[in-house]
Amino acid sequence: MTKPDRLPAANAPTAQASRFYAVAPDPNSVPVSRADHDRMANAVRALAMDAVEKAKSGHPGLPMGAADIATVLFTRFLKFDPADPAWPDRDRFVLSAGHGSMLLYALLHLLGYERMTIEEIKRFRQFGSITPGHPEHGHTPGVETTTGPLGQGLANAVGMAIAERHLAASFGGDIVDHSTFVLVSDGDLMEGISQEAIALAGHLQLKKLIVLYDDNGISIDGPTSLSDGVDQIKRFESAGWTAARIDGHDPVAIADAIEAAKRSDRPSLIACRTTIGFGAPNKGGTEKSHGSPLGPEEIAAARHKLGWSAPPFEIPGDIRERWRAAGERNKPARLAWEKRLAALAADKRVEFERRLRGEFGGSLDDGLARTVNDLKQKLAQEPKEIATRAASELALDALTAALPEMVGGSADLTGSNNTRAKGMKVLKAPDYSGTFIHFGVREHGMAAAMNGMALHGGVIPYSGTFLVFSDYCRPAIRLAALMGQRVIHVMTHDSIGLGEDGPTHQPVEHLAALRAIPNLKVFRPCDAVETVECWQLALLSKAGPSVLALTRQNTPQLRHGFDARNRCATGAYELIAADGGPALVSLFASGSEVALAAEARKKLAARNTPARVVSVPCFELLFALPDSERAAVIGTAQVNVAVEAGIRQGWDAIIGSGGTFVGMSGFGASAPYKDLYRHFGLTAEKVAEAALARLGK
Ligand SMILES: Cc1ncc(C[n+]2csc(CCOP(=O)(O)OP(=O)(O)O)c2C)c(N)n1
């Protein structure tokens, strides 16, 4: 099946060359003639062709094909100021098709982003440049999110649009009123995550979200008809969007469609029919222009066809000026916004600024510490034998009350993940002031939307699902780690301890797999006190994501008395010292297995074998300690034993390759959890026996 209703592919901008480019109602927009528009778009095309050619790698096709769309958007609609790339009320632009990065770099250069010099464009894809192969947030001013893995950017944009609506509801439209634009390619829309993102955005009626679809009908293998026949218009419409199909090389049609989308009361799709590699006479319109340099001959021919005579990396003065004027056109809007912010009631302004900084500064800093302290005091007075997921709920009841920027949710497991704290209102259309999101059964979309929320700023997103489904979120968790974003994933049912649901639901390799992601903290607290402490650490981890792996089953409280220190902060610590002499055995464990290690210690004591118990709630924090401190925590006992209801991978760094591991080596089974622990040898007896065997006792 081929795509229905295709507009004919445009090959050259001659058809409308004489038509004037209508002036948009935006008083700050820069009116240009069609001829000027074409030259401005051609500047983007030329920079993309030349940079890819110089780098000898990259993707010229998308920037050349989408140049008209981007020119209209950036010169007439997008609200931004290169002088302040972090202006909180800027419109967000996400290039979901990150392989087309030269589109974004060319725009940032032409619009006057200070650091995006022509030298950086010439150093496209080179070490140390701010023009990496795919856009990287935090690396390049003006890049809102890291894209490349297709589909992620679209879901990030949904999160940004959610954050915008929520903050507008909380602080008012005078201060928060911006749109989120996202440019997607065929590949973005083929990825499964796009369906989750589209459905969620439609359901939440995110009217300020506008998707520009670079509908060029080409992907790497060739025409998309090789593998796809979806009618995207119907697809989006059925999810509650408005959708239009236009000629993506007609600036008037593009502008009209964006204007209509801005008036829509729903999220909007604009499917822009384009020609990949527009202007390249032989490779344009084919996959040959997708992902490799066009070559000198084709570039010369494209220059001729486009009427672009400037040498490589040179932009004619008048075109540069027009682009700069477009870059400067929102300065008055930004200054007016700053005045409005300054005129806000002082407490509201201070709170808004605090939230955007993402800090618990001022009184709320004390609030976080005080909340954690109060919780720990209560637990010291009245110890609780509860599941750590329930302990997390207790923590959330207090934390969400103290920190209104926490926006929680669950992928349809709210009652199981315990992520909806007392008093949390649901965030929904048209009242977005709530702080709890029903993400639906959409783990991947949820995790990527959370990234977008964190990137937007002003909110701290946390979510809920089962630990086993971390696999469904993994690409987004990885990007959160790469971008250094504070998103917090509550992942419950963290082992065979979930019991009867069986091996499909029992994570075995997941802790190890998550611990393999750089810059991700995986917390597995052993009791209610550690759960509170791990929440505190996750909230304070401003530069990276966290996973809280929590039990379904009850665990006894092992931390007694009140200790003001956050003992989990070192990643591991001696929970119970050895009795009756220096430890012969160190028992290391995480989560629910710490209680088991404590039992094993008693059994060893009865056999005159002093053993210490080290709780290990977070590998990453332990490994970040200076060598001497880490060595002190690990200790020098003759025998090291680790206990975790997961696979061994990773534990050798603590117990050594000669250490003994008591855990899982295959999948679990469906049965009451106590039977499973017995069956798989996860018992205090087995742990004690293993230690004694190593001691030759
Ligand atoms: C998740 C993911 N899978 C695969 C790729 C590799 N890849 C990059 S672009 C692309 C498809 C290109 O087609 P399209 O999205 O239509 O982009 P265009 O050819 O129009 O530039 C693929 C498969 C990727 N970047 N991300």
Bound small molecules, deduplicated: thiamine diphosphate
The low-confidence parts are 1-25
Largest sheet: 6 strands, parallel
Strand content: 5-15%
Looking across the biggest beta sheet, what order are the strands in?
Answer: 10-9-11-12-14-13
Distance between the termini: 72 Å
Approximate helicity band: 40-55%
Output the radius of gyration: 28 Å
* Apparent shape: elongated
Features:
697 residues; alpha/beta; 6-stranded parallel beta sheet; 20 strands; binds thiamine diphosphate
Outline:
By secondary structure, the protein is of the alpha/beta class. Helix content is 42%, strand content 12%. It has a six-stranded parallel sheet with strand order 10-9-11-12-14-13, sandwiched between helices. A five-stranded parallel sheet has the order 1-2-3-7-6, with helices on both faces. Strands 16-18-17-19-20 form a five-stranded mixed sheet, covered by helices on one side.
Strands, helices and their partners?
Blueprint: H1 34-55, H2 61-77, E1 92-95, H3 101-111, H4 118-122, H5 152-171, E2 180-184, H6 186-190, H7 192-203, E3 209-215, E4 218-219, E5 222-223, H8 232-238, E6 242-247, H9 251-263, E7 268-273, H10 296-306, H11 317-328, H12 331-343, H13 346-357, H14 363-381, E8 386-387, H15 388-402, E9 406-410, H16 414-417, E10 436-438, H17 443-456, E11 460-466, H18 470-483, E12 488-492, H19 510-515, E13 521-523, H20 528-540, E14 546-549, E15 554-555, E16 573-576, E17 585-589, H21 593-606, E18 611-615, H22 619-623, H23 627-634, E19 639-643, H24 652-655, E20 660-662, H25 673-679, H26 684-694
Parallel strand pairs: 1-2, 2-3, 3-7, 6-7, 9-10, 9-11, 11-12, 12-14, 13-14, 17-18, 17-19, 19-20
Antiparallel strand pairs: 4-5, 8-15, 16-18
The structure holds thiamine diphosphate.
